[in-house]
């Protein structure tokens, strides 16, 4: 099901075109940084776990056969590692379009490698959004990802690129790695 959150996001935190803001990325925003940024730093946020529980009808699947992409699920003791980008408000606009299928911008506290903190934004898709698919057995999630394909390409590419980027960052993510290990090698 499609819900375009881009207009809602523009209203949530107003960032002037020339102002800058930190954005925390935990999914495609880690490995597909095809947007201009002023700074890029490894970072983590506390209290959240990465899960392939969000449906993708617009990028890695279709309305008829949605794929699955990452969102964050609240988990008090968890730490989610990712990549932070300092971007301008001008750059945020196209990212709102990219993340429009159910993600809402939230304010979060980022911690950088050196222990310093900053307030920033994160795109979060909660169970309230119509594209949310939620939990399922890992085999079923992996099979859905293996099948799905959308305008941005194969869903498996999203998962494998994310797993590869997390390994490069030396981040342990049992959920993502368990799914990636279940994917059949390409024919
Ligand atoms: C993110 O990467 O931070 C949001 C989800 C996605 O675009 O994969």
Automatic annotation (TrEMBL):
Its EC number is 4.3.2.7. Gene3D superfamilies: Gamma-glutamyl cyclotransferase-like. Coiled coil: none annotated. The keyword Transferase applies. SUPFAM superfamilies: Gamma-glutamyl cyclotransferase-like. Keywords: Lyase, Transferase. It is an enzyme of class 4 (lyase). This is glutathione-specific gamma-glutamylcyclotransferase. It comes from Vreelandella salicampi.
